[in-house]
Amino acid sequence: MVYLKTVEAYGFKSFADKTKVEFDQGLTAIIGPNGSGKSNITDAIRWVLGEQSAKSLRGARMEDVIFSGTEKRQALNYAEVTLKLDNSDRQIDADAQLNITRRLYRSGESEYFINQTKSRLKDITELFLDTGLGKESFSMISQGKVDEILNAKPEDRRHLIEEAAGVLKYKKRKKETASKLDETMLNLSRVNDIIFDLEARVEPLAIESATAEEHQALTQEMTEADIQVTVTDIQALKTEYARLDTEIKEFNDMILIKKERADKLEKELSGLNDRNTVLTESQDSLNQQRLELSTQLERQQGRLSVLYEKQDNQSQAEARQKKELQKLESERQALQQADQKQSGETAELQTELKQVRQEERSAEKKLTELNSDVTALIESARDQYYQVLSEQTSARNELKYIEKELTALERYFTENQTDSHDYQDMQREHEVFEDKLKQLEKDLMTKRTAYKECLADIQTKQTRYRELDDQLRQGHRYLDKLKSKYQSLTAMQSEYQGYYQGVRLVLREKLEGIYGAVAELIDIDSKYQTALDIALGGQLQSIVTEDETSARAAIQFLKKRKGGRATFLPLSTIQPKVMADSMLNRMKQLEGYVGQLSNLITVDPKYASIVRNLTGLVVVAEDLESANNIARQTSYKFRIVTLDGNIVNPGGSMTGGSVNQPSILLRQKEELEQVSVQLSSYQEQLSALENEFNSLKSEITDAEIRAQNLQSAGEELAEEERVLKQQRDEHQSRLYTLKAINQQHEERLKQKNEYETTHQRLNQSISENEVQLKEIEQQITDYQLLQTDARSIEKEVNATLAELRQRKVILEERLKYQRDKQQTNEERLKQVRAAISDLEAVDELNHIEEKIAALKEEIKQSEEKLSVVTQQFDQDRRAAEEVAAGIREQQVNYNELMRQLNNLENGVGEMKGQYSRIDVQLESLIYHLMEDYHMTFEAAENLYPEPTDIDAARKRVKLTKLAIEELGPVNPNAIQQYKEVKERYDFLSEQETDLLSAKDTLETIMKEMDDEVTARFNETFSQVQSNFAQVFSELFGGGNGEIKLNSDDVLTAGLDIVVEPPGKKRQHLTLLSGGERALTAVALLFAILKVRTAPFVILDEVEAALDEANVLRFGQYVKTLSHDTQFIVITHRKGTMEAADRLYGVTMQNSGITQMVSVDLNELNHNEIKELTK
């Protein structure tokens, strides 16, 4: 039987030291005073079994379970609890010794261990499923749990019976099975939709496929006949082409001779024309110079005439200026003498005026001093007297007001007394409230922030979860498409689809000596595929054999099977075609050259001669312009293929236009490799997405639990904050009232002190002012005597001052007249000096004569230059006439030669017209071979020999064409599409069968689980129902107790409890007393334990509400049950302690740290036990 051996705790709540509590089988009681940490043992066991609610552990947040420190001990950084269970009988699917550990760090990180192996919470939950253990099981009951059981809804109470019946694991498996069934139904729906679509396509595709096969056979027959006719027509055209080519060459030789003579005449004409141009340009230049010199000479002569006229005018002006100059000079001297005389008179007047002004200022100053000194003294004394008197009056008025206020304040202090100590005590209490509130707000903000972050994290994860779900659904659909495509491509490759009938038949048969088709044996970069496809065409289907014998055997095989035709390339006879190194090096230097086609192909060296034979003389160019240039430089000896599929053939003809995609034979292998790589890569991506999907699903569950815990903790903190704020507000209101009274008292006390100081100061000021008033009155009397003496002196000074002022006015008028006259003379003097200066200007006449001499010299030089230019112009004109005569003679000869050359070229043009028509016909036929059959003329000539009857062949082509037209439009992909759709339809039909079978299996499993749950639940409920009635009667000493289901559906019915205590009527659980409620819950627990024993049961003060008699019955009943089940009871009731086999005393000697003391009661006698439990 499983039982709890030890609980080891370190850092959990009050267990600051590592504490080990050992338990034996039987009944163990844990006792101790309130607050000593008894219930922390229960919390530790519940916590290690996975409890996630901090509230259930009597904390605000999960970190509160970590020891937070005391005054003498520091806080710890983590909490750890380990349960050790004896599992020798393997009742739990684990080792014989089972250790469960949980560790929590302050960072919030949790760790779980099973036998020292790191595990998940889910692992621990599943380990104890249906064992009677767990954080919410019936094996751990506290006072709160009693009410929770009795107040729970009937549907929630049913959980107790389910756990006792051991059906929780079945319900969990049913839920998982239902999830699988939903997924299966979804897949079945998808498969049915696809099958419905495919069914509508299979039958029409079958008809189209048969038509396409008939079309292929007719097309093969028509192709062989058409190629034979086309090859014959090309050969005939080539013969005519060669004849015309010879005639054109002969005419071209004659034209070449004529052209050389024409070039020589053309050069001579060019030389004469150049000479004529030079002479013409020289004449134009000289003529221009003549005109410029003539114009210049005319301008110079005009300027000379102007200068002569200016010279005459200047001579007359100079005579008049000399007379005016003499007159102005005389006036200037007279003005200067007058100015000197006036300056002397002005200076004398200014000196006399200055002296008079000084005497006037002296007299005014003396008069002012006499009046102002005495008057100022009197006014100052009077102002001072009035100021002191005003201060005296203000002081007396203020003194009366202060005396009145002091009387009122004395009366206030007598009537109102306040104690400041009351205010200070209340203020300290208020600070404590504020500190608590701040801490609560901080904790609440932390919780809310963590809750919001947790919700945001959940939302982000759920968004990603939905994205991953969509990606996985789409990914699986795309993976199915890739798999289908891969299977289809593999089938096409193995069936040689796309090959001619004869080629396909030989390759499928795997005949001896057959190595494969050319398309199978080579590889080439995708950008060169179009060039290779156009260059080889049908030769890609040529079959490589070991030797001629193998080829003959294969041909014989085709004849025998009537399987069509094929071209064979024996390794023993096919020789490579090699291009000269000099020619190759020459082409490499040309723009647009890509490479020799054989060098761009990857092939086993064994087949290199085949590749060289087919492509050794084929060159790849970037575009048609480059291809034309390379062909010209190589004299049209090689076939030049462009990257986009145009061809310049040997001889110069070109084939081109739009092209389809490269041959399926080239694309098939590359596409299969690409799909294989995509398939592998996509499977890895899907695997990674599924891992992320599963991990995210687990993370969302953990985050939702964490968010729920955070929300609960936040709500508890918010309620505590609300209560504390209400208390704070009431306290603050009282504090404000007391503070207002205290402040008023302090202000009035301060005001009283200020009034007393002012009263003293005012009395002193009044005394001082009375003395000062008497002194000022005496000063005013003295100043009035001095004022009488000053008035006689004032009269004498006023008479002197009047005389001085009259004299000053006369001098100022004379000085003004003198200054005006002097200013007029100065202005006239300036005018005379300016006029003299103008008359003494530079001699202009001499300057004009110098200009006339210089201009005459310039005119002489211009006349000499004009003579030289005129002579040179006449010489060039005569030379030009001679050159023009030579040009006319040579032009006549040149025109005759060009007439002869034109006749020859017209003859060549006519022959080239015939040549071009043949070329167009050839190109059309070759293009017909290439475009319709992907075959060059050389390949067709080798594959299809000339028919014995060309007319019969032409007729066969017409008949097969008519037959093909009668078939109407044909879907060329119908054969392959039918095969793919049929295979897909068959595959999905098998999947539908499998999914239907899986659905039936899952539904059967769910029904079997429902049957098992129903049977187990009914059996357990029946036993618990019987046991509850018996235990209730035993515990209550009579009465009736019954449990029953509230509906007929056993799988969903709730559990009702109906009781009838002794001596009372049947009543609702809410009407029972606290003791009756506790005993009812205990009776239900004991009834369950009789049906399904739990490894251990923990009861935390469940009997606290019972009276002594019921406690004794409770203790004895637990004692009886402890023979089969281990009981750990936290109690403070004597009856329970006496029934215990072992006591654990819990103390808290050091504040905040729990210590344990154990006593084995089996070793004590009855009296010792009674003494211990007092």
TrEMBL record:
Species name: Macrococcus brunensis
Keyword Amino-acid biosynthesis assigned: no
Name under which the protein is recorded: Chromosome partition protein Smc
This protein's GO CC annotations: chromosome; cytoplasm
Occurrences of domain SMC hinge (ranges): 512-631
Subunit-structure text: Homodimer.
Role, per record: Required for chromosome condensation and partitioning.
Cross-referenced InterPro entries: P-loop_NTPase, RecF/RecN/SMC_N, SMC, SMC_hinge, SMC_hinge_sf, SMC_prok
Gene assigned in the entry: smc
Keyword Transport listed: no
Keywords: ATP-binding, Coiled coil, Cytoplasm, DNA-binding, Nucleotide-binding
